[in-house]
Amino acid sequence: MLDLLRQTQLFSELEEPALLALRERIERSSFEAGATLCTEGETGDRMFIIESGEVAVLKSVGAGDPIEVTVLRRGDIAGEMGLFGNRRRTATLQACSACSVWVLPYDSFEALIEREGSVARGLLANMSRHLARETSEAAILRAKEEERGLHVAFFSANPYRNRLYTERNRYGFVLKFFQPRLTLDTVPLASSFRVIVVGPNDALDAEVIEALHEVGVEMIALQCTDYEGVNLDACNRLGMSIARVPATAPHAVAEYAAALMMALNRCPHRAHARVREGSLSSDGLVGFDVHGKTAGVIGTGMIGSRVLEILHGFGCRLLAHSRTERPELVDRFGVRYVELEELLESSDIVSLHCTLTAETYHLIDAEAIAKMKDGVMLINTARGGLVDTEALLRALESRKIGYAGLDVYEEEEECIAHDARDDASDGVLGRLTRFDNVMITGHQGSLTDVAQANLAEATLENIREFQMGKRGDQLTNSVPPASGTRRVGRPDESPDEKEGP
Question: Which of 66, 70, 365, 425 could form a disulfide with 58, with the two C-beta atoms 3.0–4.6 Å apart?
Fold first, then answer.
């Protein structure tokens, strides 16, 4: 037993009398394969010294299965940090095989330290030497990292974008892709990375940013133009650099909005499904001529402007409502800027292209819907929170709204965090999908080859500037200083897309 204690790093500096005293306070326990020694989050009262067998250290990362961080073997110790601070378990220990473990209660060990000064001196000597070694090793690892390339972690990663980033990684960055969203629970995944890349549904509140700072993250690369949802106070206070991307997909999202309009109107998806079943029936497929209809666009930034251009090609009468008017739209396409109430009352099609703010949250609520034409078509490719979903459901049931095309959903973060299938039969999403005149898609307006390639290139360029030494507002696409927390926008908008009533 004394040989095992000498092999254990924490006790390697203890003298023989101290080791003998320690030996008297340790008890042996045996665990079968698969048994749990302790569980993450619970309060611990003992540490474990592995004598034989293997013990896995498991760490939770959000709603998914725990990740195996490391495997402990003979001489390894777990739970020792409980001696110096919070005794809440930071990981789960699970036996990989039948194993023998020596258990040392914290209270018993603390009593030993108080009685035997040599134990305390030995622990301090070990910790001092360990700290010096770790500091040197950290410097060596950082130097090697710079030689190999900057390490970059991606959250909310998906296979298509992963391939794009890998193919276009001409700067030699070391890329690691994590499928889970960034949350406080998944911050530990960023521990060995100076730069992280996040999407519009990742959490970037003050608590998350502080946790990222603690694990060594120095830059956040946003895969979007807007920076709502980022607690900028925390970033500025901690010296965290943030970069966004310029407009990457105005054409893609505008075209997708038009595609939703035409699909809802002419129902090619339903007709195709019938043909595959051997039916050429046209019952329920009668649409309307878009030509001559009045279309109202709310928000005339880069995306909204292109939607108006497309609808002009269809021969629509065009109304617009926006904080900033664009004279060129009036001159080229005959757009008429009007108050929101007139747009709602006069439009056969209403398409939303404004940002989500406190003022525009639930812009389309029961009161706004009541002002619309009976049977109006509503398109939302901007922000889920612009539409009061409960009010929308009531309007669909009464046929006040005749068509709804949604590429964004008010609670899509929850669907992404878990699985949309969990809400497919119950809940708001399930209720929406039961309507034949509703089309919901999964935030794919910007999903074109050109738009995604532009996004990847712009993100990598931002990271390259950081690698070359630029920080904060030195970055070309830095986020300007501001205070408070704002909601993250879509990865497909441009600065002047931040339009609203």
Answer: 66
